[in-house]
Amino acid sequence: MISRHRPGPGSTMSLAFCGNENNSVAYNVDAGVLNNGCFLDALNVVPHVFLLFITFPILFIGWGSQSSKVHIHHSTWLHFPGHNLRWLLTFVLLFVLVCEIAEGIVSDGFSQSLHLHLYMPAALAFMAGITSIIYYHNIETSNFPKLLLVLLIYWVLAFIMKTIKFAKYTEHGIGPRQLRYCITVLLVLLYGLLLAVEINVILGRRYVCFANPTEVKPPEDLQDLGVRFLQPFVNLLSKATYWWMNTFITSAHRRPIDLKVIGKLPIAMRARTNYMKLREAFEDQKRPQATAPLGPKMIWQALRKAFGRPLILSITFRFLADLLGFAGPLCISGIVHHISRDNRTIQPPMSLLGIYFISSKEFLENAYVLAVLLFLALLLQRTFLQASYYVAIETGINLRGAIQARRHSGTF
Predict the structure, then answer these.
(1) Among candidate residues 304, 334, 329, the one with its CA nearest the CA of residue 395
(2) DSSP letter for each residue of 58-73
(3) What is the phi/psi pair of residue 228, to 5°?
(4) Transmembrane ranges (predicted)?
(5) Helix-strand-coil percent breakdown of the chain, rounded to 5?
């Protein structure tokens, strides 16, 4: 088992942002502020404090006035350009930030005093990441994109600060062997992609720097309050957890629900819509082409063209779920190996810029880290598996509705 360096019996673990060991170089700025690891971490706190300070008043003031209106009249629900991509990138960002917090805690174990700068900036970044997605969700549901300027400024500041940190790490010879370097590279990439998504929203909605903003109307389904199946229109987290169905579930526990409470299906899920989609795909196969299939193959080609994409998505989700199934045995094996091996002391990690750096191998040998990874892997596995089942079942229902509508019509 890895034994961390501990202070002597006469010393105590004291609390300090940069640490306060004897003869510590944590506060030494003779080579410049940006060449000190602690101050470099402190500089990265600025964007997150800015976002938390700006968005909290807006959320607390606007939450009550907007939420009741949105739940009663969901015709304001819109998805800005890059909606799903933003949610996916934010989820990955939060995971990387959790890794950064864990890396800072493990690295801090080799110090005589507590170095808050190793994990406090990452914790603030994690809070800012959650705040950013909540803030974005409320702006999207209220259709007021001008408030997204706050997020644009935040992504710019976060990207610049992480780029400076990455440049300084590279300048001092810190490379891919150190886990904190790899995490910094990933954060630079993620903040850059989120900034690109934000710029894409500006170009798509033209809500700033353009004379004529783009007016976007809600989907036709949401303009009809009789449509209450909101799975295609809610955000990605609500889709994955079916959070929007809580109203139906709680109502069903109190009293039986009827068709009036369930409401109408969205246009895309109705039998006539799917019949027209299948008929269009079939007519395309009948056009005179040199490579056009004949007989039953023509029908299979039409079915593939009309309903192939969701089936491929279902297969992808199932593949990811099966792939994550290997994470459980690997993590458990690592935990058992870590606990059962003989205690031995390893050399402390290298100290650069006045702080300790651990490798990815040392990080993944920690039993607590493996336990957290095991929990996240199982959570993602069940999520992907459930998503695969849902997409496959929904596609099957749509296909059956299209075929039955065709039988009743008598022709394709």
Answers:
(1) 304
(2) HHHHHHHHHHHHHHH-
(3) -120, 5
(4) 45-64, 85-106, 118-136, 148-166, 178-197, 319-340, 363-380
(5) 70, 5, 30
The three-point CA angle 74-78-81 to 5° equals 170
Q: How large is the average pLDDT for residues 163-184?
A: 85
Tell me how far apart the alpha carbons of residues 93 and 111 are, in angstroms, rounded to a whole number: 28
CA gap 197, 82 in Å, rounded: 6
d(CA 80, CA 20): 48
> What is the model's pLDDT at position 350?
59
Q: Do 402 and 275 form a contact (C-beta atoms < 8 A)?
A: yes
Residues in a beta bridge with 178: 359
CA distance 18 to 11: 17
Q: Where are the domains of the chain?
A: 31-205, 265-285+292-409
Structure confidence at residue 11 (pLDDT)? 42
What is d(CA 126, CA 132) in angstroms, rounded to the nearest whole number? 10
The identity of residue 114, as a single letter, is L
Identify which of 269, 264, 267 has the alpha carbon closest to the alpha carbon of residue 228.
264
Residue 268 confidence (pLDDT) above 90: no
Question: What would the two tokens of residue 112 be?
Answer: 């005589």
CA 145 to CA 322: how far, in whole Å? 39
Neighbours of 47 (CB within 10 A): 24
pLDDT recorded at residue 111: 64
Q: How many residues does the chain have?
A: 412
Place of tokens 């459980």: 328
pTM of the model: 0.81
Cα separation of 346 and 248, whole Å?
Answer: 56
Across the strands, what pairs with 2?
344
